[in-house]
Specification:
Elements lengths: L6 E3 L8 E3 L3 E2 L1 H4 L9 H14 L3 E5 L9 H12 L8 E6 L14 H15 L6 E4 L8 H13 L5 E5 L3 H10 L4 E5 L6 H4 L2 H7 L3 E5 L34 H7 L1 H9 L4 H12 L3 E3 L6 H9 L7 H17 L7 H4 L5
Parallel strand pairs: 3-4, 4-5, 5-6, 6-7, 7-8, 8-9, 9-10
Antiparallel strand pairs: 1-2
Helix pairs in contact: 2-12, 5-6, 6-8, 10-11
């Protein structure tokens, strides 16, 4: 790979797969108000830039579309059809498992449902294989050992390459890994969301050599240093529905980030860069997957993958992060969305 940032390997039976230390979350390309959805002419240059910079793990989903749940996957299909020379340079992870696809309250981990999705993914992506696949949320009606065995069967058939899990408990990770090697576990991770360090998920991944994909690593913009007022968030943005961005919580939460802003200034980097660099330091197989639709932000993100931060600054950030995680108000999502998370 000719990228400009450091690389990290995935886990499980994908331990030889090397990707950029900073990945690329693609949700914001298509899961937005229709007028804000990126056209191919807008999206393709960003994807090409990501490859050029070495951000070669791309995170997508079968439900990443505000009007069409397959919109994100379709965009990827068109991209790789136009640029087949990049097929082998990019590792894509795709979450799914809902039935119907756009019903995010019904996770269904049956062979029939997984096979249906994988057949559709094959048709849309054509010559680009699905590298990582798994359910976005745990179907608690199906034992994790059973759903993992189903995924292992479909993987063996060549429908995808490696199993990825998302938002699962430490017990589920350990149980699944006994059935089949797990390549990745996706969790929300930022100084406002350090659950994985306290609920056993990080330890379970370490024990089983599993890479962690940290989504919303800037806490959906709180740690970018640019989001200062709730009115900065455009109407229709999903953040306006989330607890931490509510009118009663936003101001106090954004003020908590001031210490990170000041610490970043002390070493002449941005809050984004320092936050991502700190996350990389927490686990050698953690890959933050920030999303953006702007080239300037993409370049800022990937530079974090090769940033050298003094150990004393990282130690200070450790202390700040513990304090912020304890003081942040509001849950990660809202009452409805929180109900889909495995405790």
């Amino acid at each position: 790979m000719s990228g400009k940032i450091a690389t990290r390997n995935l886990g499980g039976d994908a331990k030889d797969v090397s990707v950029g230390a900073i990945g690329f979350g693609l949700l914001s390309f298509t899961w937005v108000a229709p007028e804000r959805k990126l056209s191919d002419e807008q999206a393709f240059p960003l994807l090409l830039e990501a490859i050029e910079q070495g951000a070669t793990y791309w995170n997508s989903g079968t439900f990443y579309g505000s009007d069409d749940p397959w919109a994100n996957v379709k965009l990827l299909g068109r991209f790789f059809e136009k640029y087949p020379e990049h097929i082998d340079k990019v590792t894509i992870g795709i979450k799914g498992g809902f039935n119907p696809t756009n019903n995010l309250s019904n996770s269904e981990s049956t062979e029939e449902n997984f096979r249906r999705e994988l057949k559709e993914l094959k048709a849309l992506l054509k010559n680009k294989p699905v590298d990582i696949y798994g359910p976005a949320r745990r179907d608690t009606r199906v034992p994790i050992e059973e759903s993992t065995a189903i995924l292992a069967k479909l993987c063996k058939e060549g429908l995808f390459r490696h199993i990825g899990l998302s938002e699962v408990s430490a017990a589920s990770i350990r149980a699944a890994a006994k059935v089949h090697p797990i390549a990745t576990v996706e969790v929300e991770y930022s100084p406002f969301s350090m659950d994985m360090e306290n609920n056993g998920v990080l330890q379970a991944c370490k024990e089983n050599d599993i890479a962690i994909l940290g989504y919303s690593p800037l806490s959906r913009g709180f740690f970018s240093g640019e989001l200062r007022k709730r009115s900065d968030i455009p109407q229709g943005d999903i953040r306006l529905m989330l607890d931490r961005f509510s009118e009663e919580n936003f101001d106090s939460n954004v003020q908590l980030t001031d210490k990170v802003v000041e610490l970043a200034k002390s070493i002449s980097v941005t809050p984004t860069q320092l936050t991502l660099a700190w996350e990389l330091h927490r686990y050698e197989k953690l890959i933050p997957i920030p999303g953006t639709t702007k080239k300037a932000n993409l370049l800022l993100n990937v530079k974090s993958g090769s940033l050298s931060v003094p150990s004393e600054v990282l130690a200070k950030f450790d202390q700040i992060a513990d304090e912020l995680n304890a003081k942040v108000t509001g849950s990660r999502y809202n009452q409805h969305l929180n109900s889909s998370l495995e405790q």
